[in-house]
Amino acid sequence: MDLILIRHGQSQWNLDQTGGDDAPLTALGRAQARRAGLYCQAQFKISALYASTYQRARDTAQIINSFLNLEQVVLLDGLREFSEDYSFAMPRFASPLDALQLDAPVTPAAITPYYIAFQERVQRALAQVLTAHAHEFDTDAQIGIVAHGGTMGTILRTLAGSHHFSLNTENTGIHILRWREQRWHLIAINRVEHLECDRWQHEVGKDA
Prior knowledge:
alpha/beta, 6 strands
């Protein structure tokens, strides 16, 4: 089974820091979502699609689904982006070498009380998705999740078992996780070829 994690298209907040927590997509964001939809239609066989209830993720998912023609997009509050910055409390290391030599995994409790709650919420949402597809774990099923930079970074940190790194994701960047041989395989990070970019846009997801 594959999890196809897709970040929303450009939001008004990404563009000019207006629109608040539930900022809508810009015209560019909608165009990015259409490109993502075409890409998903051509490259994957997504059989179920989930999305955060924030409108930038919800609308991105609906646009993608206009190409997939699934019966519905399942909306989950638990996939929403964080609302309180925690980047200032993420672990810092004197050098990349020091970051290789962890004495123990970094837990959410080592970051902030808010991050503890955020991580627990994201983990519950992921568990909800996985539970719904438990009968497909050992199949070629592909499940799509449209969410946010921080949400997806937290999913990756949770699966890695340590919260000491950040994950930057472009607008409509795609990560692919595969459950096979009783463990997770990280197949791809931040795929953006569907945007036909000749350079990175540097509108990275606001993960820590």
